[in-house]
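Notes from hallway chat w/ T.B., transcribed later so I don't forget. T.B. wanted the structure written out for a chain they're using in a teaching module, and asked if we could keep both sequence and structure tokens in one place. Agreed to drop them here.
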Amino acid sequence: MKRRRFLQAGAIATTGWMTSNWSYQPQDGRIKMGIVGTGWWGTDYLLKYALESNEYEIVALCDVSEVALQTALDKLSEAGVPTPRVYKTYEELYEHPDLEAVIIATPTHWHALQFIAACEKGLHIWQEKPISYDIREAQAMQAAYEKAGIVVNIDFPRLQAPINNEVKGYIQSGQVGEIYQVGFNINNPVGAPKEVPVPDTLDFDAYCGPAPILKYLEHPRPGRMNWRVQQGFSRGILADWGIHYLQNIRSVMELSIPDSVQASGGNTTKNPTAEHPDYLEVTFNFDGLPVVWNHKTWGFTSPLPHTNIGIFYYGSKGTIFAADSGWEVYPGDGSGRKTFGNPRVGLNSEEYEAEIRREFVAQFKSFAASIRAKNESAIKGTFEEGFNSTSAVIYADLAYRSQQVVRIDKSTMDVMGNTKAYEMLKRAYRAPYKHPYVQ
């Protein structure tokens, strides 16, 4: 597709981007924010809800895709927001005059370098999860964060929902007895994208950055790449989507980093070239509590379809199922299901999107309050939470790829007794990029 047609495609479907009762009003005192990565998530969620919180002035944008940048600019123009400055690189954006905070919404393989550079500039950071691609990157990011003295919010919007505290309180009440196991799953079809030529509107070398130069895989949305299905850019569904539910579990059950992880899975003959397993089971051992992940990407539907995505807390007196907008209890005595909220809300429904909006706006307001107060007491998605959940899902991928149990030394983050997994704690960067971890 030629450049002009790409830019036209990027400008489609901007109507209704902001809620009907929101309008831009000039206001002093807003936090000056830049966004690195203006793709679908960076624009249709983070940029949108940062504006709706009325806490930020969007002063700078950066993306290596002309389509992504133009789409974001079109939507800002439609919403009546002053045009921000556009930069070709994140390093240039970080030099923007009076910049205070930055959203990092790039693919996972870029997070570490961009986060550490922002720390060195003293910028407050809204960081997409998982925070890093490998364990050693996460450790380098931790060192930079602790030195910088900045506010960091890891994007875990579901921590803003009342469900976690409600479920935690119910468990602590003893009504489902002792929790012997926790399960979480996402059963959602994933198509097989095809390779297409790299569009001339994208700097693909810069896109790949420290990762290998991989295939350009087509995405249904114009100007987007299907990077989440590629191992060099992402560690799959658990790391990209399941991490949200693992974070909820860790919050409810007050868990840190697992002691060990084991995994099994593979690819069906329907998708033999897939880089990630299309079925996977992972068992995290948290101080004797097994937390078990399952996913199937080839069309499996649970006998209770509303439980295709969510969390099960298995107790000695009953079971809790928690979804995004509600939860329910199945008492062990057969007395009948108890429902709280609406656990049967469908993805992308109006009710689902309304809850997503509430969570994101609350998250952005907490981030702004913490920046102004110069402390992180209002932050729920702290750097520590992001570090721990990210580490857990990386260890899960290492367990799957090594086909051995991963046992973790929490003091060093090393893997014990699994040479193959240990060697994958730090991946080689593509020249001229240099891995930030220094032992």
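Follow-up for T.B.: The two ends are 46 Å apart (CA to CA). Might be a good example for the class.
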